[in-house]
């Protein structure tokens, strides 16, 4: 049939038949292309692109980026372990997050990470304590909260003074002063991440100004940094958002640090690298109608892709093999017992029938990563397509795995 959806050169329907549904399919080539495009946007310095593993920790996909030369941004001991298994070099890994436990700090110290991104005075003290115990010097960057509004969804805004993230300018300088006098600590960088799915340049410009001001102040204190880590957050097009112009994005940072050629630039993109590389394939189970609405019930749910339920996010939904006929407005919903369980609402869709495969697009970031077993639903399988070949990256969870840890 013509017009049939292909993923990385392979038929979506054939993949669904072979591996079952719900199924995440990742296109390695698409992730690689994003990595290269971002890297190439920087013409005056080569940034270290630390993939934010939280977006999609699938080892096979992360390994594609590690092989391209990416570093990793992690936020837990679990991600540390995953990053290492995917092949990221410890020297290229940065550890973010407001709540690192003593155990996680120790694991990071033993691994020899590039930097801990410190988010509070108490965390700084804990890091020094654990480093002292292990007899190592902890490399650190303070996460600056520049109090800028990234103009994105409130749940994914991180750089405002009313967010829990980072420390404000004055306190950041205090922490740097303290750290520079502590032999258990080694100041290596400064970090700042203002939010996610950012589609405008102005918040980045404001953050860059804040960072430059902090760097001046640190130099005044006699502190020379090895790197400045400007976080991630680059927005993509889900529906009609204009994507961030990469060249202009790169210019902001190259200009901001032009007078500091020795400073390594780090980025922490997640979504930008992998969102478009992933599709969630799901099978139509039933159609039904109320006096108000038409529903298409599918076998994927908010447990597989919680973004619509959590943020009211819009993801494209298309039949893998479109049928002829009049499009109708439908809600595409999952089997979970909540009205919040929808993948699309009031969406104009070509006719579908039970057994048809639908593709939910832009599902490569914060899809499987945020999936759950709610309603005792085993989590989906994941497939990586590369060079025209598909291989299973993660088996579909078994029912047994649902209660394996129960006593
Ligand atoms: N660095 C830090 C410190 C972060 O907190 C995040 C994301 C990133 C980097 C990567 O941001 P990205 O480039 O992917 O925007 N679940 C939400 C997104 C949460 C983002 C959390 N932090 C969603 O589905 O939209």
Number of helices: 12
Radius of gyration, whole Å: 22 Å
DSSP strand tally: 20
Please tell me the overall pLDDT.
Answer: 96
Task: Give the oligomer, counting copies of the same chain as homo and different chains as hetero.
Answer: single chain
The portion of residues assigned to helices is 25-40%
**What count of structural domains?**
2
Ions, cofactors and other ligands present here are: ligand LLP
The third-level CATH topology of the largest domain is: TIM Barrel
Note the overall shape: elongated
Distance between the termini: 51 Å
How would you describe what is shown here?
Helix content is 30%, strand content 24%. With 407 residues, it is of the alpha/beta class. It has 2 domains: 6-25 and 275-401, Lyase, Ornithine Decarboxylase, Chain A, domain 1 (Beta Barrel); 97-267, Alanine racemase (TIM Barrel, Alpha-Beta Barrel). Strands 3, 13, 14, 15, 16, 17, 18, 19 and 20 form a 9-stranded mixed beta sheet that branches. Strand 19 and strand 20 form a beta hairpin. The longest helix has 19 residues, at 202-220. The structure holds ligand LLP. Ligand LLP binds next to helix 10 and helix 11.
């Amino acid at each position: 049939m013509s017009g049939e959806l292909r993923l990385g050169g392979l038929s979506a329907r054939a993949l669904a038949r072979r591996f079952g549904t719900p199924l995440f399919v990742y296109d390695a080539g698409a992730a690689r292309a994003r990595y290269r495009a971002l890297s190439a946007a920087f013409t005056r310095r080569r940034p270290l692109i630390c993939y934010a593993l939280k977006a999609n920790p699938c080892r096979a996909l992360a390994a594609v980026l590690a092989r391209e030369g990416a570093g990793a941004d992690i936020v837990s001991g679990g991600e540390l372990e995953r990053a290492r298994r995917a092949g990221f070099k410890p020297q290229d890994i940065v550890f973010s997050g407001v709540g690192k436990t003593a155990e996680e700090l120790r694991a990071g110290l033993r691994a020899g990470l590039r930097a801990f991104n410190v988010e509070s005075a108490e965390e700084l003290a804990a890091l020094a304590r654990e480093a002292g115990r292990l007899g190592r010097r902890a490399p650190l960057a303070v996460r600056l909260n520049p109090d800028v509004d990234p103009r994105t969804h409130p749940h994914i805004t991180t750089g405002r003074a009313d967010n829990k993230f980072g420390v404000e300018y004055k306190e950041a300088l205090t922490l740097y002063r303290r750290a520079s006098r502590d032999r258990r600590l080694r100041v290596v960088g400064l970090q700042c991440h203002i939010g996610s799915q950012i589609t405008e340049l102005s918040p980045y410009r404001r953050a860059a100004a804040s960072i430059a001001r902090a760097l001046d102040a640190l130099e005044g204190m006699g502190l020379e940094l090895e790197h400045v880590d400007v976080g991630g957050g680059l927005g993509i097009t889900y529906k009609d958002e204009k994507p961030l112009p990469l060249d202009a994005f790169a210019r902001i940072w190259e200009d901001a640090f032009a007078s500091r050629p020795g400073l390594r630039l780090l980025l922490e993109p997640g979504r930008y690298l992998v969102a478009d590389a992933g599709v969630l394939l799901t099978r139509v189970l039933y159609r039904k109608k109320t006096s108000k609405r038409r529903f298409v019930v599918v076998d994927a749910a908010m447990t597989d892709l919680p973004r619509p339920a959590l943020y009211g996010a819009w993801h494209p939904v298309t039949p893998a093999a479109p049928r002829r006929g009049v499009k109708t407005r439908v809600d595409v919903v999952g089997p979970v017992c909540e009205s919040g369980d929808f993948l699309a609402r009031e969406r104009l869709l070509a006719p579908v029938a039970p057994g048809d495969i639908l593709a939910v697009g832009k599902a490569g970031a914060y899809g499987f990563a945020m999936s759950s077993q709610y309603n005792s639903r085993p989590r989906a399988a994941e497939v990586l397509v590369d060079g025209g070949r598909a291989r299973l990256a993660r088996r579909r969870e078994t029912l047994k795995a649902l209660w394996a840890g129960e006593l």
